[in-house]
Design a protein that fits this description.
The chain is of the alpha/beta class. 36% of the residues lie in helices and 18% in strands. The chain is built from 14 helices and ten strands. Strands 1, 2, 3, 4, 5, 6, 7, 8, 9 and 10 form a ten-stranded mixed beta sheet that branches. Helix 6 packs across helix 7 and helix 7 packs parallel to helix 14 (346-364). The chain is globular and about 65 Å long.
């Protein structure tokens, strides 16, 4: 299944020798308030992929505000977590599901696992990310951009300008420089492929990948290997003597390279090819059959509150969706501002995803 770790900041921290602690109450599956989530319970259970994180002060603020304690049930990558909720439809493992993104949204909605709820504060969320705004089965929580990252030192040493667009990547001067993830097993890999679909259309993306393959693109199973082993610009890649100065990662990867470094550099060692990006939006929804529906609604309200939205960037390395949320200076100083990220409609993804993956595999892996 696809990984949804849009940054895997913990992996970057580990590569830099930093220990990170998850600040999610109850993520070990134990009760956090002496009672299970249910009618009248003061515990609300959030089912999520493994990348969910929030600071202790923010979770405590939710408890102080509502009386509910959050228990986080992490369930692997988003695809696996979503499949479990589909299998237990009507008898969910928790009250709220967080982490279904626009590449998987139609599957979740078509299987009817959510109870509609219009969260308080939606007027602060841009309409273009409210992909279910007529029915409110899901609430947008964050966005992030999958983009090619480059090793600044490599290109400076070679006196070569780094690529900036999809078209650049197939030029001969960038031959054998790019590593990307398997579309069938990785969320960033899938996002990068979808970006090529958005750029070149239904009739052109296959030819693009033929050219990319001819130009020496390397494909690995997942983000961890691509970024922290093969990519020469990351802390992990340097240790592993990675030899690929281009990698499919995230627009928020450069800030992580700075924030987790000790001492911190004055600028990020990596950059972003801003013309290669695909926009992901993550959603949360009230699970149908939730035992603590009132707590679930309160949690959805809180997930789009200014306090939670401003906590997310340095916890999960994603962008808030709330228009009134301020992004930390480290996030903006060292990250890339993406203004032209590609998108593909969720219903089009749902209709074509499996065939696109099969076609890509036959073109690139054989």
């Amino acid at each position: 299944m696809r990984s949804t770790k849009r940054l895997a900041a913990g992996a970057i921290a580990a590569a830099l020798g930093v220990t990170t602690l998850a600040a999610c109450g109850g993520s070990d599956g134990k009760k956090t308030s002496g009672e299970a989530s249910g009618s009248g319970s003061k515990t609300v259970t959030l089912v999520s992929h493994d990348s969910f994180n929030a600071s202790d002060p923010v979770l405590k603020a939710f408890t102080a505000q509502t009386g509910y304690t959050v228990k986080v049930l992490k369930s692997g990558d988003a695809g696996a977590a979503l499949n479990q909720e589909i299998l237990t439809k009507g008898s969910p493992r928790g009250d709220v599901f967080f982490g279904v993104d626009n590449t998987l949204l139609s599957r979740a909605l078509d299987n009817g696992i959510f109870t509609p709820y219009e969260a308080k504060g939606l007027d602060r969320i841009p309409a273009d990310v409210q992909l279910d705004k007529d029915k409110h089965r899901v609430t947008p929580i964050d966005t992030g951009d999958i983009c090619v990252n480059y090793d600044k030192k490599y290109f400076a040493d070679k006196k070569l300008s780094p690529p900036q667009t999809f078209d650049d990547l197939i030029k001969p001067e960038y031959k054998n420089l790019l590593v990307t993830e398997n579309v069938a097993t990785s969320s960033p890999g899938l996002g990068f492929m979808l970006g090529s679909v958005a750029k070149y259309g239904d009739d052109g993306w296959q030819d693009y990948w033929k050219k990319l393959k001819a130009n020496g693109v390397k494909v690995v199973d997942g983000w961890e290997q691509a970024y922290n082993t093969d990519f020469s610009g990351s802390a992990g890649g340097k240790k592993a003597k990675g030899d690929r100065p281009l990698v499919v990662s995230y627009a928020s990867s450069p800030p992580a390279e700075v924030i987790y470094a000790d001492p911190r550099p004055t600028e990020a060692p990596t950059g972003v090819a801003t013309g290669t990006c695909f926009r992901q939006t993550e959603f949360a929804g009230l699970l149908k059959g939730a035992k603590n529906e009132a707590g679930g609604k309160a949690l959805l309200d809180f997930l789009i509150s200014k306090k939670f939205q401003e906590d997310m960037p340095l916890q999960m390395f994603v962008d808030p969706v709330a228009k009134d949320a301020t992004v930390p200076p480290e996030f903006t100083k060292f990250g890339a501002k993406i203004t032209n990220s590609a998108t593909v409609a969720p219903d089009k993804i749902a209709k074509n995803r499996d065939q696109w993956v099969k076609t890509w595999s036959s073109l690139v892996l054989k």
